[in-house]
Amino acid sequence: MTGLLLVPAIDVAAPQSSDPPASKPVATRDMSFRVRAKAALILNMQSGEVLYRKNPMARLSVASITKLMTAVTLMNMNPDLSKRIQISRQDVYRANWTQLKYREKVVVKDLLYAALISSDNVAARVLARVSGLSNKEFVERMNQTAASLGLLNSRFTEPTGLDAGNVSTAVDCAALLWTALQNDVLSEVLTTKEYTYSTDRRVHNIKTTNRLLRGDQADDDLWESIGSKTGYIRKAGYCLVMRARSQSGDDVIAVVLGGVSSRTRFADMRRLLNWSLHNIGQQEHIGG
Question: CA-to-CA distance for 19 and 35, rounded, in angstroms?
């Protein structure tokens, strides 16, 4: 991906005749579950239709989904992915979650895996530093990238998602994941369930933070993931954006923001994916 790509337009408004009041979900014979997250969205990538929406334009803290914008912004700067960079003291300061240590030397491409697969906060900070910009300048570039992509309801304050000031909407998150997946490197990273890499000190083995992709929890009979990112901080709740494809080729992006627990986040997403990929072509626009 060289330069910015145009994000497909997402129209969250259902036809006027069936557009429900925000407080009253539309009932359907195919949908017998309730989405507990504050906001949710399912987008049919083939038709561009919104299959389900719940507060899709609500501006919410998105936690580590922020790392998608960090990665997209950096990749637009054509970084040297083979470069080895040393972890600084500032990188590890109050990082909350990381496997990386001060003075450890890591290859940039491995940092992308660490940031996007295991949601390593130090890795995200180092990726911003790889750009050659100051942290403030890199965050400005993140917001410029968002504006250029038409993500006008998104605003970023730092590259990890630890700050609740990183905000977006379900609609913008869907477009952000779509954008990231247009890059061959990021597409490869975002579909990886487990990854091993070596630094100058040790070997790291990391696993995806998306529990839907682990072992017997994956709904392999209905769909496969073609990219996802989780997020959590207390003020954001539990978040997940995911693109999935069924065996018949149906393709959707689904977003859950503000989940009340890790368990309900994944339960919401599994139900949304199973329902939408089973019923594509049979249901009308649904609101909740």
Answer: 18
Instruction: Give how far Cα 39 sits from Cα of 57, 101, 154, Å.
Output: 8, 36, 15
For the chain, strand residue ranges (E) read: 39-44, 50-54, 60-61, 84-86, 105-107, 167-168, 194-198, 203-207, 223-233, 237-246, 251-259, 286-287
Measure the CA angle with vertex 209, ends 205 and 214; round to 5°. Answer: 85
The whole-angstrom separation of Cα 65 and Cα 173 is 8
Is 23 marked active-site? Answer: no
SS3 152: coil
pTM of the entire predicted model: 0.89
- What gap in Å lies between CA 75 and CA 263, rounded to an integer? 32
pLDDT in tens, 221-242: 688 999 999 999 999 999 999 9
* Residue 245 belongs to a domain: yes
- Exactly one of 119, 131, 168, 225 is catalytic; name it: 119
Instruction: Answer yes or no: is pLDDT of 177 > 60.
Output: yes
What CATH code is carried by the domain that includes residue 96?
3.40.710.10
83 is catalytic: no
Q: Is residue 263 part of a domain?
A: yes
Catalytic position from the list 67, 118, 228, 246 = 67
The answer to whether 53 touches 288, Cβ cutoff 8 Å, is yes
- Residue ranges making up the domain that contains 55: 16-287
User: CB 143: neighbour CB atoms within 10 A?
Assistant: 16
**Of 38, 54, 64, 154, which residue is the catalytic one?**
64
The yes-or-no answer on residue 246 being catalytic is no
| H/E run at residue 147 | helix 135-148
- Has residue 10 been placed in a domain? no
97 in any annotated domain = yes
Using CA atoms, how far apart are residues 266 and 42, in angstroms rounded to an integer? 14
How many domains, the chain? 1
If one counts every other C-beta atom within 10 angstroms of the C-beta of residue 234, the result is 8
